[in-house]
From TrEMBL:
Domain of life, per lineage: Bacteria
Gene3D superfamilies per UniProt: Rhodanese-like domain
Species in which this protein is naturally found: Pandoraea horticolens
GO CC aspect terms: cytoplasm; plasma membrane
Protein name as it appears in the record: Membrane protein
Domain Rhodanese: 212-304
Length: 315
């Protein structure tokens, strides 16, 4: 049964699975590539070519969206992700270290490809550069899967034969495995948010504090890549990398109000830094609920960041 289904719909399944994953759907496409290749029903070059086409087609749509909508599209992508609280920091860190070259290995890291493609568009990467690195990455990613499929074909086919004896039961098994996969991702996210649970302050409270006689220290902990995409910040805030905290806040009284903001879902980066500052003895540290987006959406003033350099070449 399985071989008949793969022979009839295998290529369509490869295309739709990879295209859907490129669009941001939580679809594990690698098993599809490996299983399809292991059956030897289709030439390896055809499978890889189809996979690369599907990946580039989906990525091109998000690249265009990144060029058109900038940081707004990153907010949407994080809502689509099943682990939005970590996808932002991981992707921004990778883009900061490797630039657009991250596209060559992004597909091998869960969640990295989903944000790195629109981020490349938002950073002004040229079409030629984007297509070159993204195509290299798609070829490497799909080529490894197809090689695994052909290399371990006898073992995979034996497993497929065993599944074949289950009849329709195999569909229920696949559905169960996929449900467990989603549940595990949700549990990991729940444990992360629970570990970072602390009181946030709203933008109205911050605005009131900034009008006090002793204003709070406001820290912008967005990555350099995110500030390059959205070069605005809360007036008077300090852009500080986590490893610079001890030096730049050395002369700040430990009882001074400190507000930390980022641009990630659930203020994960800001909450982590707030925990670090509390461990260093700062008594009143609060993440800003909603971050810079909430401040801007409330109609408060933002200021332009001068001297922002693009992290990737635009040509």
């Amino acid at each position: 049964m399985l071989f008949d289904l793969i022979a009839r719909y295998g290529l369509w399944l490869v295309f739709l699975n990879i295209f859907g994953q490129a669009l941001g759907l939580p679809l594990p496409a690698y098993p599809t590539l490996i299983v399809t290749a292991s059956t030897s029903l289709f030439p390896a070059a055809l499978i890889v070519g189809l996979a690369v086409f599907a990946a580039l087609l989906g990525d091109t749509l998000w690249f265009l969206a990144g060029r058109r909508y900038g940081h707004h599209i990153l907010r949407l992508m994080c809502r689509l992700s099943i682990s939005p609280d970590t996808c932002v920091s991981r992707t921004e860190g990778a883009m900061g270290r490797h630039g657009v070259r991250v596209l060559m290995f992004a597909r091998f890291v869960p969640g990295l490809s989903a944000l790195s493609v629109p981020m490349a568009g938002a950073l002004g990467v040229s079409w030629r550069t984007f297509l070159m690195y993204d195509a290299i990455g798609a070829v490497l990613w799909s080529g490894v899967a197809v090689a695994i499929g052909f290399g371990f074909a006898s073992h995979i086919v034996a497993v497929l034969d065993a599944f074949d004896t289950l009849g329709r039961g195999v569909l229920w098994l696949v559905a169960l495995v996929f449900a467990l996969y989603l549940l595990n991702r949700w549990l990991n996210r729940y444990r992360l948010l629970r570990s970072l649970r602390m009181a946030r302050i709203g933008v109205q409270t911050l605005e009131a504090w900034m009008n006090d006689e002793v204003t709070p220290v406001v820290i912008d902990v967005r990555s350099a890549a995110r500030r390059a995409i959205d070069p605005f910040t809360i007036p008077g805030s300090l852009a500080i990398e986590p490893d610079e905290i001890a030096e730049k806040l050395r002369d700040i009284p430990r009882d001074r109000r400190i507000v930390v903001f980022c641009a990630c879902p659930n203020e994960v980066t800001a909450a982590r830094l707030a925990q670090q500052l509390r461990a260093q003895g700062f008594a009143e540290v609060r993440p800003l609920l909603g971050g810079l987006d909430a401040w801007r959406d409330a109609g408060y003033t933002v200021e332009k960041i001068d001297g922002i350099d693009m992290l990737v070449p635009a040509h």
